[in-house]
Write a structure and sequence with these properties.
6-stranded mixed sheet; Rossmann fold; 6-stranded antiparallel barrel; single chain; alpha+beta; about 325 residues
Length: about 325
Amino acid sequence: MLKHLEKYLQLFIFISFSSAPVFSQVVFSDFRNNSDYKGKWNLEKSVPVYLADYLRDKYGIITYTPSTFWSLFEDVEEPDKMFEDFERLSPYIKQINATHYVSGSIEFFDVSRYNFSEPTVAGYEHYSSIIRISLKIYNVEKSITEFSDLIEGKIDKGSLGINLFGRPSEDKLTFYSLDNLEFGSEQFNGTIVGLAMKDLCESLVREYRYRNQASFRELRAAAAKQKNEDTQLLKGPSKILRGDVLITDELTGEVFINLGGNELKQNDILFVYQPDSPLTDPSTGEILGRAEIKVGEIKVTDIRGPKLSLCKIIRSDSEIKKGMIVKKIAENE
């Protein structure tokens, strides 16, 4: 059903991007995994998604993860392989007015534990994580490589592990269950690997900003400009985001709306309104005027791009249809 919905969204998406002002935005490719890591995490996809989310959440930069980028296009043959062929990929990047393209490879991914004690008594435990990636940032507008280098994140942690009655310490339990955690989740971010990924991201921003100060300023300024243009401020201490229902699927209860990017977060709740509904006098039936009538609520399940999100209907007093208005009200920052 989702594929069916996206088919009808193609024309809208390309018209929206071609008619909108060009904002600096970054497309991430899948990465190659050249490391010796053989665990459960899919590093080829998880690492670029982590980087994209970090830049968006920390600096407000408009980013496309690989899956979000390809969700804007239909019937693309072997999209994973296309990331390795920029000549084939370039037309797709230009269709969404993206300004930067990031590719890379994971060269080293290591998590280690050293224990200096007897198995059933207190002892010193040392944990370390080193993540090293080769990264290239290409400026699509200028046709130049702005950044190409190895970036490393490294964390060392030592602790006194107390093994009561032979039971392992909390750090040890976490260490041996690491790859059961979702890569990039809140719990993951507090682990030795999550801290190493954060260190890697901070190193990347520090090095890129030092070498390309103007481009970094443009990326941040573009995000702020888009946020200002997309947000309608109300008088008083609150603001309102306003968009439209693009298409609905009655069978799945899924809805596409034209809000996304920095405007929304996953699990946000929005109200749906029927536009231009008549207000009538219940006793006479006389039309007294017209107004927007709330007809339901939807929940954001997946943000597909700066102007596209997938939502789930969680309440409806009447049928939610294409063209209805969606609103989210929040406190001003």
